[in-house]
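One record is set out below.
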Amino acid sequence: MTKRESVMRGSRARQSLYAATALCAAWAMPAFGQEADEAADEGGKKEDIVVVGTLIRGTTAVGSQTLSVDSQEIIERGASSTNELLGAIPQISNAFNGRFEVDPRGVVGSGTSINRPNLRNLPGVNQTSGGLTLVLIDGMRATPLGVNQASIDPDVLPAAVIEGLDVVTDGGSSLYGADAVAGVINFRTLRKFEGIKVDANYGFGTTIDAYDVWDASITAGQSWATGNAYVSVTHSERNGILNGQTDWASGQVFDAQGNARFSFTQCPNPVGTEVRFFKFGPAANQFTSNPAAPGAGTFPIGTPCDATAGATYLPKQERTSVFAALSQQVADNIDLRVTAYFTKRDTDIAVFPRGFTTAAQVFVPPANNPPPGTIVTILGGTSFSFGPNAAYENTPNEVGFETWGVTPELTFDVGGEWLVRSSAHFGRSTNYQSFPNVDTVRAQAAVNAGLLNPRNVAAASADVINSITNFTNAQETTQELFMFRTVADGPLFALPGGDAKLAVGIEYQDNNAESRLSQGPFGSISAVPFMKSVRNAKSVFAEVSLPVFSFIDLNGSLRFDDYSDFGSTTNPSIGFDLKPVSWLSIYGHWNTSFNAPTAIDNLAIGTGRFACGIYVAGSTNPAQRPVDPLGRDTSRQGTCALVLQGSRPNLRPQTAESYAIGFNATPMQGLRFGGQFYSIDLDNALGALNPSIVSTYTTNPELYTYNVTASQYAAILDSLTNGAALGAQQVASNIGLVVDTRITNLNAATIEGIDFNLSYQTESSIGRLAFGVSGTKQTKAILTTGGVTTNQLGIGSPEFSATGFVGWNNGAFSARVTLNYSGKFRDQAVNNLGQVEVVDPFVTANLFFGYDIGESGGVLNGTSFRLIVDNVFEEEPQTIRRANTNNLSYNNFTLGRVIKLGVSRKF
């Protein structure tokens, strides 16, 4: 029995065991509602620390749910990147229990160069330059990242300096402005550090033997009477994993009878057709390819190959980060804190060797007029790979960024328990991507000239191969952010429940973005000028906290933002917290929020690509071009579609209205449980047209252009950044259809669901025990895409997700068992029979063991060791037989069983 067969045989039994465990043992979660002010530095005033979801000191977010991951949870996860930490929270749909980074296909296909958390599984998260979930560092924005994107990748912050992270799962635009549509994630860094600490981690796969990852960090700090300073340096590396190194990422396609084959044609052995002509008479032009003639006709060449196996499952990555913080009491009533970061990350995405598909040769009768009965052969369209030629270098796709930022904050105690906090941030990011390709014009010219034989690529000269493959689609984006914010908060007057408090503030943001792209020789982008965009925003905001009675708190906030490019917006929020008894809290809120077009959007970068002989509706036969319901396809010209990509000019803000109501109960010491219902209505949502939905030809007719004239074609090319390169490849008469899939405000969504949590901890004779469960159940997902409204609940992603642990700690030893559960859902694509399959629940179990020597170990004083095993039972993704390679063969993501070893030493 193979390992895969053994694993699959045990899968059902393990799922039953998991379900029983979930019912019999309370799972645990990251601490709910844990105030971030517990991270206050020693000797500091906890009430001076502002938590996420409010601007008022000494309060928590009223009417909203806060999820937290503390420092111990961070240690126990053994994450090699900050993005991995987000996998602890079920509400972050694109990180929990699965792929914590962008699918490599999305990086190349749509240029998604950074990872952005997606709270609430809102649609189109990778089709926007900004984010629908706001990421903060110590309550402040950081400089945006990305090629044609403008958001924060959590990997900017090294895990070594994270004290904890807090997530408010409600819209936060009334406090923080743009992007907090689904909520806010705030990373809390160490307030102070003294001494030297070294951390090292190494992980390796047992399911995927080739996988390994390591990281190391050193943190050093010093305190003095009035302050503290520390610096932390982290470096991590991991190798890349190919699809062929897994048991489930397959490039096979299947027919209705279940017969497997491969469909990729640009292979080391050429794939295509050859046409044989039979000379039937004495005249020079008496040739025929009619199959009725002896030896004549069209004949296949070669066999398709597996390109998926040589493509990336998990990219190779290298990352270096530096983080520093300084805290200083400047005067009795003035405190200064400055943080700064630098991060460089480079990602390599391995690809199958590049190839080319030739145009069919034109038959020309031989000049020597051979005798009747002669067979003359020409090539039809022929696909091949350049890999067999010794001069070919298989360069990977490359994506990366380098960014830095400085954030100073001055806190003034102005008396009367009022504080004024003035914060600023200035930073810069440089982002790049390079996707190696083929100069198709040179390739066809070389074939026509006889310099490149598709049947014998290895024989071509190095100069020919290099001239064709010295070609890449490259893009660079640079972004800068200057931000200034001042907030004053303090008490107003006494109420029966306590002091009424107010926070008021102003904010100014200045964003600069520049981008350039090229299609040409490697390095040629350096000669291309940048396209530049500048935008600023001015904001005023206020928040009031009213503890009307001891059993009811009210909170309200309002923010006005004025943007230099698209106008202004005002967003309110109202919340309440009702305590009918001391152990029960009932809360609720209502707010509006928005995601503003970014400075990148103002560049309106549009590109195009050709789909020849395929058409966007999926036909592989030009005669089967999609039928236009409006009857506009009158000329039936051309065999190519021109697909426009990128973003359209004059984008409008995405807006949302949301509300939630929930409760938290603590009926006895150590026991806590709660839940909430939430609803989000998203309007003017950004998205791209999906031409595979036939109804969009009617709902969005302006995005489909038929019968393209030469003047129309020229105007379209002029509007595209790569228009000149496209014009060199195809003339207007070859274009049968232009499809505008550039991003615009096409969509809308209504998302609703229920969150829940239960936790219990107690002291026993063997130490502290903790149990619990938490998760989320989506109850509505109505999406409007390109004018078409559909019910997407449980399609493509689970309705139900949950996580938890059973933990034990007795001081020196600690252990933890974590279960992550992703529920079943309907597959987004059909199988080889044209049917939609149900993807079964995906459950993984993780183990943690830790030993802290403490101060009794002699030379090992201050040393701790940890062993982590992820996916203990080697749960594998469910595979589905596909009829084509447009969709993944597997659902859910895992690296299989991974063993991680870690050690920390503090001096």
Observations:
- The domain at 3-257+308-354+392-436+471-546+559-607+647-696+742-906 is CATH 2.40.170.20 (Maltoporin; Chain A).
- The chain has eleven helices and 44 strands.
- The chain has a mean pLDDT of 89.
- The chain has one domain: 3-257+308-354+392-436+471-546+559-607+647-696+742-906.
